[in-house]
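Today's session is about reading a structure prediction critically. Students often jump straight to the picture, but the first step is always the sequence itself: look for stretches that repeat, for charged clusters, for runs of hydrophobic residues. Only then move on to the predicted structure, which in these notes is written as discrete structure tokens rather than atom positions. Here is the chain we will use throughout the hour.
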Amino acid sequence: MALSGDLKERLARLRANIEPRVAGLAGAGPAFVLFLSFTDLTRRAITVTATGDNFDIAWNGVTARLWEHLVRERIRPCWLRVDWVEQAEEITWRILKQRLTSTKRNYFRYGLSLDRCFANAFLEGELNANAMLYGGPGIEHAVVNEANFARYARLRHGLEHLDFSDDRPIIQFSARGAFMEESGAVHWLAGAGPDASRRIIERLQPADIRGLIERGSHYLATQVGSDGRFTYGWHPCFDREIRAYNALRHASTLYAMLEAWEVTRDPSLFDAIDRGLSHLTEHLIRTVDLGDEKLAVLVEANGEIKLGGNAVCLLALCKYAELTGSTRYHSLLEQLALAVCRMQDSSTGRFDHVLTYPSLAVKEPFRIIYYDGEAAFGLMRLYALTRDPRWLAAVERAFDYFLAHDHWRAHDHWLAYATNELTRHRPRRDYYEFGLRNFADYLDFVRHRITTFPTLLELMMAARQMLDRLAGDPAHAELLARIDPTAFHEALEHRAHRIRPGLVVGAAVDIHGLAQQRDHRVLLRGQPGGDLSFGGLDVHQRSPMRPGVPRGLVRRVRSRARHGTRGRRDTMRRQAAPNAADPAHPRRAAWRSRAGASG
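Below is the predicted structure for this chain, in token form.
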């Protein structure tokens, strides 16, 4: 089987682009190390490696191996990717294992070779896509998974026995790359660092952000079945479906999809939303008749009624009404809101977090700080829709409690949303001050946190919108002096860019991720095993990230864990604030103690 003229032309163009950028390596090993990955978009990509004393030898080597696979596999490559080694360091398995203890799982951004000649080498994408450095959901940092390592080494290089002894030398390397679409367009991929293997984008543009929204929401739409239920998620490393379900995430994902539809107006997306809402309202939401009033509650499979569950139902159904002008769900919205109010202590404003269906007995007074903000945010959105004073009064009671108990110490994104909405209708000084405190002393963390931490972008976007209004409020504009605008916008811009390294999208997934094609797939790098779940990708409109980016094109991705019906929200119960990922934070222990006692 000869290379087709089209493929020859594409390879020639790819070579012409990359050859001037590839410099030889110093040292005893090969001067040039090239990896060529290719896929027809229906299966996991094949990666081949070749080395040489000059670029020509290495290039001819990888293209010859490409041809061998085309003959054997009988595939037609659609996407091509070339990586070249820029730096290499000889270490041992012991040193690698030590380094992995301080590396978040799925965030190891280097390749590994089992020998100095790079005959048995693996790119960063291969290591992470095959869970070779994944120790299980209970281990936050990367670890050498000897079983997965041996499995892929056998498939990739035909190795039957690996030596993982501590003193065994291996090579850790960084690589830079180029990705070619089927059209022939070439995109440069970053080298060493947190953006390794990512397409280089110096500054996010509206088209970049809109593309993320369109692709992400299209993927979510494809995961909604004819019955309105989502395929909960996938383990992309193993192309295995996650067979859990979570009613709260069903509702919150529909909210995200509605906000995406506000941008895209994609008919297929709206059809999926409609099916999902039907399943939500007909099967997941149930009514409780108390005689004098009827309540509606979102019920999980284990019979739990979560305050946050009812809240995100309010958000989804209010958004649907706002976008369509339909009053179809107005009576249901009132019943959902009444249930939220029933979970509130009318004298203190405190919410109970989890009830039991159908008795409505309190199961857990406090579970996670998210629920408080979600409840206030949902009620405010309903107030904006109907102007019923009951909902505003409930939120103001809740904020009396939040203020009295310093909830701003949580630096919580849902509280930021709620404060932003409340100050639209009640521009009180103490509410503005609460909103400012929720992020003011957190900007340094937001700016320098290296992982995706998508809720930080949510926090910043809600804060940005509140600051914009505060600037136009003569009675309270002097509060802006408490915020350094340069530091704020630098943190915001940095946080937006940190979303991308936390996702493995398109080329990276197809080159090293999934065994089958999944259009517009997106997985979260920080998740256990790199899960791709419907709850893991939420698209929200907020105010602009910076001048020049239209409103409505801001995308955020909310991390989700995979197991059971509780997932990341309830792991956050143990991390209520001020920072879920930083156990050394000076206020964390005090906040946990106070939040637990107050609940």
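Discussion point for the tutorial: Residues 505-511, 513-521, 526-599 have pLDDT under 50 and may be disordered.
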